Fold this protein.
Amino acid sequence: MTAPHLTLLTGASRGMGLAMARQLLSSGHQLLCISRHVNRELADAAQHAGAPFTQWTQDLADTTGAAERLQAWLEAQPASGFASATLINNAGVLPRIGPLDDCPPDDLANALRVGLEAPMQLTAAFLRATGAWVAAGWRGPRKVLNISSGLGRHAMAAQAPYCAAKAGMDHFTRCCALDEAQRPHGAKLVSLAPGVIDTDMQSQLRAGDPAAFPDLQRFVELQRQGQLTSPEAAAARVLAWLDRPDFGTQPVADVRD
């Protein structure tokens, strides 16, 4: 039998993460989903598809715990059992909408832990564990796909924590890509903006207080004019980018380019 492609996916219980998980359910993939909550429908779909599938309940705000758990799991796997290994850092948090000084300290800390520190910790754990596979002779491709946002590249009032987390994600991806380029059989990394998607996050933005959120009407108009991409269509575009033969040559990218 052909070895499956291993995919590790955070934030897989809803939105685009759930859509990506559903599209990855096949006999050719082994999927590990990491989210705060288990999605029972996804588990049923995996069973119906006969796809190797695991779900973890894990609060990514516990960044060290999540990274240690992932590294231990990877170190326990036989590298020869996989054709490739991919980490998709998709989870993120939208804190209270408003100026930075109105953001509760706990919300601010949580947004940065989940949106930036967790992807960095998980990426480090992934690179350490799969790097050991490479040192032992495994030659499958390794990829890290960080789901970023246009808001990491263009400032927006009332969302400093989210914008900062995504900007940090872009830049740590650039740095790690430089590191991996110096290593034999190094991993390929991309921080990808997936476009404007019809998810709970968009609903949160449209429900913001106009007095605290100057860009509120822009998000209302995006929905009114039908400019939001469905989670399923966005997931398909992101996964297609992941499969591009030139993946990694442009470490910060936009799926709309």
Summary: The longest strand covers residues 29-35. Strands lie at 5-10, 29-35, 53-57, 84-89, 142-147, 188-193, 252-254.
